[in-house]
Amino acid sequence: MMRLPPYCAALALLPVCQSAHAQDAILDQSLRFTLKRESRAWSLRPAVTLEAPSRARMARLSPVVTNDRVHALNITFQRQRHRLFRTAPAQSIDLRPFVSRSHSLLMTVEDRLSLSDTLAVTAGLQGVNAANRNANVTATGGKERIGARDWLLPRIAITFRPNTDAGLRLAYRENMHSFGETGRIGPMGLAHETYRAMAQNLRPETHRLLHLDADWTPTAEATLGIAAFQGRVRERLSFVDHGYQPFNSGSARLQGVRLTMHHRPSRHWRWSVHYMAARLDLARDGHAREHSLALESCWSHGPWAATINGALRSRPALDAGSHAGNGGVRFEGALRYNLSDSASMPAYVSLSLSDPDPLASAALLRDQTAGPVHAADRARGIMLGVGLRW
């Protein structure tokens, strides 16, 4: 049986003043549906006649439909386009042949199968195609593009949970991120030869991770977890100091461990602590170590919700861009207010302070979807957001 919930499409136009000569149009579309198996169990049903209702007999074999929710195939398509189009007066130079545009297409297929009450398997893959054309404001007129494509990024996980208090999970996944700055923020002014050299040498960032996780819940309010991992980060994407020009800062093999503890003192407040240590074997010879200690606190009451996250981290081993720094304290926070309690059409307003973690080990452990990376995604910033879903 196929269940097709409504798909959602969002069209956002960034506001600009009337005197601006260019506008950035962002079109984000997504489609998601789930295939679930419908099983039929055959059973004998009594045939009751009107003449003798009390003398029922087993005379008919009928199928009984039961919904089997332990097996589901989820398929997602996401398509996003950025286009920088001209709104200059008619007497201006026609720049239509040099329109900057970028697009990304993401496909996700994931299947979950419960083999027993304690054992489950999740397997799937991601496919991504991201490309930029005329990403440079000064090197126009060519068909050079910066892009990456991979339709086979597998992932598989085996989960064993003998009871509700303990669990063990073995997982493997691959991921890819490419540069995707066209039509969003910039500019990136380069000579044509410099831009062509960058476009030919720039490579997408790829991840390959194998990890073993174990968790234990000694009480209803506390959870302990430990994870051992090893993997590889290839062609780590970084950005120049205070700019948007991308470059590859290196590759490394990683192995390490992560410890976590979650505690919920009340239904309105919870906090957690995370410690991670990793060893990196750099592709350019040599070794490095990364470690971080993070403390997070979340509070919610009524329409209000707040999150604070502080971390003490080491110097990044690969990221040499403007946002890497020399280690030290990293701080993030968010405040959100729900304008509507309706489950069918929630609305909210939020204020957040972001400071993404530049450690290669942290990037490897984050389970993000494949796709383009923007310089602003890896920079400190403050964002005011308003959301409405239907």
TrEMBL record:
Keyword set includes Isomerase: no
As for subcellular location, the record says: Cell outer membrane
Listed name of the protein: TonB-dependent receptor
Q: Which UniProt keywords apply?
A: Cell outer membrane, Membrane, Receptor, Signal
InterPro entries xrefs: Beta-barrel_TonB, Beta-barrel_TonB_sf
* Main location group: membrane
Q: Does the keyword Membrane apply?
A: yes
Location of the TonB-dependent receptor-like beta-barrel domain: 108-353
Determine the domain of life of the protein's source.
Bacteria
Q: Which residues form a coiled coil?
A: none
Q: Where is the signal peptide?
A: 1-22
Q: Which organism is it from?
A: Sphingobium cyanobacteriorum
